[in-house]
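cron nightly-structures :: item 1 of 1
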Amino acid sequence: LYTTTIALFTINFGRFANTCLVLLLILMISGSTIQLSIELSPSFYRYGYGLPLYHIINGSRHLLFHSSTNFPLHIGVLLIYN
């Protein structure tokens, strides 16, 4: 599903699409790997908390290490994105 969306976006918008996708990738990676709370993080990183990579990483941390996170929230957000 994501591959088809990215391919159609790239075909229709060309080089502008590549720039947007790189910026989206940077935002997703920076928002998902930061270990600060939302209140302490700069406003740039706060957008990354709503993107799917943040919820994938925290959900996998819950499954691998049995940490106390809000696992149903992560699953719900990922189901909404699909």
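cron nightly-structures :: done
The mean pLDDT is 79.
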